[in-house]
C-alpha cells in the first residue's frame, strides 16, 4: 500500500474502515478500497468518483457512503489543492 493511501486509511473513522474489501456499490460491484484509492488519487467530487469507478452510478443507494468518504478524506487534505 502506498504511503498516501495508508495515511488516508488511518485518518478515517473506524466505521468507514470496515469491509474495505467488500463492494460499497452493489449495483456495479465497486470495492470500498477502490473508491478510497480513487479519492486519494485526486477525485474530489462525487461526479469524478462516478466517472472513474462507476460507484453510485446505478440506483444511487451508496451515494451517501461515497459522499461520506469524500468528506472525510477531503477534510484530511483540506490544504491540498486537489481536494474539496
Give the ordered list of helices and strands. HHEEHHH
Per the principal axes of the C-alpha atoms, what is the gross shape?
Answer: globular
What structural class do the secondary elements suggest? mainly alpha
Strand content: 5-15%
* The CATH topology: Arc Repressor Mutant, subunit A
- Just give the CATH class: Mainly Alpha
Low-confidence runs of at least 5 consecutive residues:
none
Largest sheet: 2 strands, antiparallel
- Domain count: the total is 1
What is the tally of beta strands?
Answer: 2
Could you tell me how far the N terminus lies from the C terminus, measured between alpha carbons in angstroms? 23 Å
Radius of gyration: 12 Å
Q: What is the residue-averaged pLDDT?
A: 90
**Biggest sheet, spatial arrangement of strands:** 1-2
Multimeric status of the protein:
single chain
Helix content: 40-55%
- Individual helix count: 5
CATH architecture classification name: Orthogonal Bundle
Folded structure, characterized:
With 84 residues, this protein is mainly α. The protein has a single domain, classed as Orthogonal Bundle (Arc Repressor Mutant, subunit A). Helix content is 52%, strand content 6%. The protein contains five helices and two strands. A hairpin with a 4-residue loop joins strand 1 and strand 2. The chain is globular and about 30 Å long. The model has no long low-confidence stretch (mean pLDDT 90).
